[in-house]
Fold this protein.
Amino acid sequence: MKLLVLNGPNLNLLGTREPGIYGSQTFEDYFENLTKKFSKTALTYRQSNHEGDLVTIIQQADGVYDGIVLNAAAYTHTSVAIGDAIKAVSVPVVEVHISNTFAREAFRHNSFISPNAKGVILGFGLKSYDLAIQSFLE
Ligand code: DQA
């Protein structure tokens, strides 16, 4: 099983970014834990702050990975292009969010990812990624 963990804008700042919402662990540290926990799964981590790069990475993942764990961050709420990219490929995508976006500002309640995703996991902190990976394995 080959899975791509793909993070969008500002998630490279996890650890220092709004720790009250996103916690104080860097994603690199957390990802190391994930690779140990899921040692039989080939996990790859990519991050970009650029919408077009995320579209290209999703397109290129088709036929290469068995699934994508995607946190499109703020682009979740704005990006028709990322939603279309998911629709255009056959690799399944599980949408994740660290925070419970429905308990936050109204503009975070809309997602261009959800209608095209296999499922959505949100609000469990970084554990949301762990749960999303498990969803591909079970
Ligand atoms: C987020 C929620 C988004 O609304 C926000 O823009 C992010 C992170 C989350 O993981 O909780 O950057 O996707």
Remarks:
- The chain has five helices and five strands.
- The chain has a mean pLDDT of 97.
